[in-house]
Amino acid sequence: MTEQEKKHIIKSIVLSVFDEEGPTPKVYWPDDMDESARLIIAMKTISLLMGDEIYQDGDDLNINYFGILPFPDLKLSGLTYFFLIADEKARGNAMAATITVLIDDENKNFFHENMKYLRAILEKGATQIQNTKELNEYKKIINEIREHLIAFSSDLKDPFSVKRKIKIIFVGLDRAGKTSFLLAIKKKYSEIIKTLPTKGVERSEETIFEDQNSQMTLWDLGGQKRYREKYLEQSKYYLYNVDLLFYIIDIQDSKERLDESIDLFIRIIKSLRELDEFPPVIVCLNKYDPDLKLSEEIIKKVQYATNGINKNSDKFFIKIFRTSIFDYWSLISAYSFGLSQLSPNREFFKKQLKFFADKTNADALLLLNENGIILANYSKDEVSRRVFEISAPHFQTLYKTFKEFKLLKEDFIVSSDITSESKNIIFKKIKVGKFNLFLLLFIEKFVGMEKIDNCLPEFSKTLIDLISSYI
Prior knowledge:
The chain is of the alpha/beta class and 471 residues long. Helix content is 41%, strand content 25%. The strands form three sheets. It has a six-stranded mixed sheet, with helices on both faces. The protein has a five-stranded antiparallel sheet with strand order 2-1-5-4-3.
């Protein structure tokens, strides 16, 4: 490593492969990298993402995961890309592999700020590795990745900003319910009736975890026509560097207003394209109140609005939810899903929930923080997902009631055997580092609390690493 490279933000790169000797650092840079450090990186990245799985079909190389992992013993953070390499001699006809780029822990915001480009580089390198079996070719590919990364980061003016700055905007017509949505999420119900039309823009901060490595700012953009025209005319200020967009539609509005809302959506999408901004877009068909769900008029309006959105969202990731301030779970589901799109580790979280589900025979799992935000979820099938979706909000309320009246047992089971002799829904409080999280399990064939409790320590330990880089 040259003196110039020693001063560079990229500290090392490791290609790890699960071969006959287990997790092995096959190629690494710099060449004089400490052996124990190489092994720590190989062991952690491979074992975390591989778990107990055996990949039975080496022809299917589409399995991949991508995220940020901490290496506190090395004082480094790693951006890791997990993939498979076809190998007829390997168990399951494929070898698990990871490419990990490491930087000083204090500079990990470099990963967040440049995630799209970094992922593209690692994906390209992984694909090239999948197409060769020669170690010398592996070395050549890793060296090319190193050269790309050093050239890219050298051109950045400020790759070392301490905190990731996240901009989330809420936009829609006036009276669509944007401000009420945000107040209901915070359960500030008494303030909803006092809500006045937003003038210009109102900003607030969001926190998912204490000491999180990001500053999240919510922009509630006024929906009156004069404000809409302003933020479209000044899109370089309002729509530039947007990380996540919530678009709120009043589904009880007249057809004329729905058309106006769809037209505004089209104009916003056009402005974002012109700015080369492609944030995830969460569309909330709002005021989908519980007593109106079966209304033929509302059903038609939902379909009409959905079609209008889908026809005009090419190249954007769009997810549509039906929400109501009278259905808290609908709000928190939409809000949580949006926030999860900001997490580089969302794939890792889902993978860990799948591992835990396999070990405990769970059909579905939800992981929530203390504020009820859904950090991750996993379901084996659509039926389990739907049952869970309906049940979860009731169990969260029941948990709080039991806690208030000190009726909770030490194991924090809120309910079991509630649906039938063979189906169980369990609400557990778990300690993950300094954070209290909640795990909701739907289990058809109950294996007993002892089995679940035995699996929790390893599960919690893994989550500590993932939470440190959640957002």
